[in-house]
Design goal:
Layout lengths: L1 H13 L21 H29 L7 H26 L2 H21 L3 H30 L4 H26 L3 H19 L16
Length: 221
């Protein structure tokens, strides 16, 4: 049955399409290679999703060094809930005021400070408050980036742009988790690595235009 199913899939793929494709989604991805704006956004998602995955994976182990490991599950849930709220509220305000770069810089700066603060103060209530603020800004950065990429790329290239950014983000989610894993024996180094990654993101954000009008792609390319 497996062989039959595989042969059927191959035959289906090789068969001509019953309906013509939508030309609006047929744009080549070659434009991404030289688009510095999109690579900067990809770098920011690499950092942002990497930070979230690293925290969700290793917070239990990090706090365990400080005798607070049992609270990690609740703290991650609190951070995620705050992030959902931030993603529902903040991007609309940012878009209306055209303050996308400022929002992404704020998310990175808050992340730098948040994990340095957790390294300094290990009280579970304090860590929870810090992660509420962190989650609110960090998770809201994803819809801000995706919205900005769509405005930049235009409707014909929006799908490719979003796919590229999500691939970059998921790659960051793997790489930063592995980096923190290598440092997990020392919680201060692990938290410091997260802050350093966020600092890199803050530097990347400075390469974005302050307003959206300066980011629009030349559609004729």
């Amino acid at each position: 049955m497996t062989v039959v199913a595989a042969l059927w899939v191959v035959a289906a793929v090789r068969s001509p399409a019953a309906f013509a494709g939508d030309p609006s989604v047929a744009a080549s991805l070659g434009w991404l290679r030289g688009d510095r704006f999109m690579w900067v956004l990809g770098g920011l998602l690499f950092v942002g999703m990497g930070v979230f995955n690293a925290v969700a994976t290793w917070l239990d182990s990090i706090l365990g060094h400080f005798g607070r490991g049992g609270a990690a599950g609740y703290l991650i849930a609190i951070m995620t809930a705050a992030g959902i709220l931030g993603a529902a509220v903040l991007p609309q305000v940012v878009a209306m005021r055209d303050r996308r770069r400022a929002s992404l810089q704020a998310a990175c700066s808050v992340t730098v400070v948040a994990f340095l603060a957790i390294a300094a103060v290990h009280n579970a209530a304090f860590v929870g408050c810090v992660l509420v603020v962190e989650g609110f800004f960090l998770l809201a950065a994803l819809p801000v980036v995706l919205d900005w990429s769509e405005l930049h790329a235009g409707p014909e290239r929006a799908g490719g742009a979003v796919g590229f950014l999500l691939l970059a983000g998921n790659l960051g989610g793997v790489v930063l988790v592995l980096i923190v894993q290598g440092l997990i024996g020392n919680p201060y180094l692990a938290l410091g690595a997260v802050s350093v990654a966020a600092f890199v993101g803050a530097v990347l954000a400075t390469r974005l235009p302050a307003r959206n009008s300066g980011a629009l792609l030349q559609r004729s390319l």
